[in-house]
Amino acid sequence: MDKLTPLKPVPSLCAVIAALLIWFVIPVPEGVAPNAWHLLALFIGTIVAIIGKAMPIGAVSIIAIALVAVTGVTNPGKPGAALDDALSGFSNQLIWLIGFSIMISLSLNKTGLGSRIGYYFISLFGKKTLGIAYALTLAETVLAPVTPSNTARGGGIIHPIMKSIADSFGSKPELNTSGKIGRYLSLVNYNINPITSAMFITATAPNPLIVNLIAKGAGSEFELTWGMWAIAALVPAVCSLIVMPLVVYWLYPPEIKSTPDAPLFAQDKLQALGRTTLPEKITLGVFALLLVLWAGVPAMIFGPALAVNPTTAAVIGLAILLATGVLSWDDVLKHKGAWDTVVWFAALVMMATYLGKLGLIGWLSQTVGSGIDHMGMSWVGGTILLTLVYLYSHYFFASTTAHVTAMFAAFFAAGIALGAPPALLGLILAFSSSLMMSLTHYGTGTAPIIFGSGYATLGEWWKTGFIMSVVNLLIWALIGGVWWKWLGYW
User: How many Cβ atoms are within 10 Å of 480's Cβ, its own excluded?
Assistant: First the structure.
């Protein structure tokens, strides 16, 4: 008889206690609906269980979905509606973009194209592991202005290349060899994404919303154009992109640091692979098609009527790979990581979404703004505090779009009321809206794709994310602030 898989008692108990304390002991604040507070209790309990690894993350998420449905916190008195709410995460397009991107990446390994790409990058930059990190950084930066989906860019395009390079060095989670190079490159791979997302209005979906919110909040005083945003981001972004691989290198230095013979080794491997096969050509064509569709090229050329949704593009790509036989349905079914990611990310997105819909996040942002006002702080201190609260509250979000929608306008208005220059405050909050992605393994769509590859542990991921959030904040607030002053933005 198979043994039962036990719960880890200590983290499980901590999760239960955290949820019960918030639900039953801590009074519901004035202005907050009881069911919103109870949903917060379930959400905090879920996060504690995930952090403590009480169970596999997918199992914790199924329990969370069940608790939301059973307790009816999203729709009191309507069990059927509460069940619909609990399962609503699975109807989120972003969830399936993540899942399909992971499935599509199978083709790189199955056809050998991934190895070919990996060896090619090594042939160019393989003398130093740090050189490979900067090659990935440059590649994503070039793609950023024309790729509105940061998930498609970092998770669907750059990550498969990063995996191929790590695999070529024999650095694989299943072999317990992530420390060779894979852990370092995966952490770099992810932490590029928040920085490039902050660089252009068109680099991630919430940025156009931020431009609109700033324009409404500041009136005619300050309105960001595409060029103004890009110029404002240029200097701090370049600094962050230079510093980030060095910080990660200091935190988790790869075992393989110098590989002087790697370029020649890679060339030998490329020759051994021979000519590009038909399955490789099909895979390469699919990735080129996805890049064109994700970048919005049809809409740019022919108008918005031919715009293709990023998730639709991913479905098309997967369908082509299945129809041509590059991937089989069994290949897709056996990819546990993809299905596991769909389950746990859907649960977190659902809970974070309803925390916003039920008004708890709005209450939090309003409370913070009025609290700072009553403290009598100057606009400088108020701006710093608002930025810190705004950025680090992303621990409670599984979507940057939801975070921006729930909190940006209130925090921007609170800062304006304190006397902060609209341009300075708007830029800091706008760029923080992307930089905060670094914090967690669920903070944006790119995160679960790269984290799901298993190169870094949860602790390593969160530690790196927090340290990078501090480094990026200092760079963008100090160097960025001086740069924006020189530009005359404030």
Answer: 26
Write out the two tokens for 441: 């393994």
158, 189 contact by CB (below 8 A): yes
CA triple 205-207-212, angle to 5 deg: 120
- Please say whether the beta carbons of 41 and 364 come within 8 A: no
Name the CA dihedral angle for 24, 26, 31, 34, rounded to a multiple of 10 degrees. -10
Mean pLDDT across 146-164 = 81
Given the structure tokens 């440059």, which residue do they identify?
138
Alpha carbon separation from 295 to 149, 281, 375 (Å, rounded): 8, 21, 46
Complete DSSP assignment for 1-42: -PPP----HHHHHHHHHHHHIIIIISPPPTTS-HHHHHHHHH
DSSP conformation class of 406: I
Q: Which long-range contacts (CB under 8 A, 24 or more apart) does 269-272 make?
A: 269/115, 269/119, 269/168, 270/116, 270/119, 270/120, 270/123
Sign of the C-alpha dihedral, residues 378, 379, 384, 390? positive
Q: Which of the listed ranges 77-91, 269-283, 300-314, 315-329 does the model predict with the highest average pLDDT?
A: 315-329
pLDDT of residue 479: 96
- Tokens for 160, please give them: 């498969």
On whether the CB atoms of residues 437 and 197 are closer than 8 A, the answer is yes
Lowest mean pLDDT among 110-114, 328-332, 379-383, 452-456: 110-114
How long is the chain?
A: 490
Quickly count: other Cβ atoms within 10 Å of residue 270's Cβ. Answer: 16
pTM: 0.71
Half-sphere exposure of 322 toward its Cβ, with a 13 Å CA cutoff?
14
The CB density around residue 252, as the number of other CB atoms within 10 Å, is 18
| CA nearest neighbour of 451 among 433, 435, 439 | 439
The pair of three-digit structure tokens given for residue 413, joined into one six-digit string: 């208005």
Q: How confident is the model at residue 1 (pLDDT cuts 50, 70, 90)?
A: very low
In the chain, the largest separation of any two C-alpha atoms, in whole Å, equals 73
Determine if residue 84 is left, alpha or beta; phi over 0 gives left, psi from -120 to 50 gives alpha, anything else beta: alpha
H helices of 295-359, where?
297-302, 310-323, 329-334, 336-357
- Helix%, strand%, coil% for the chain, nearest 5: 80, 0, 20
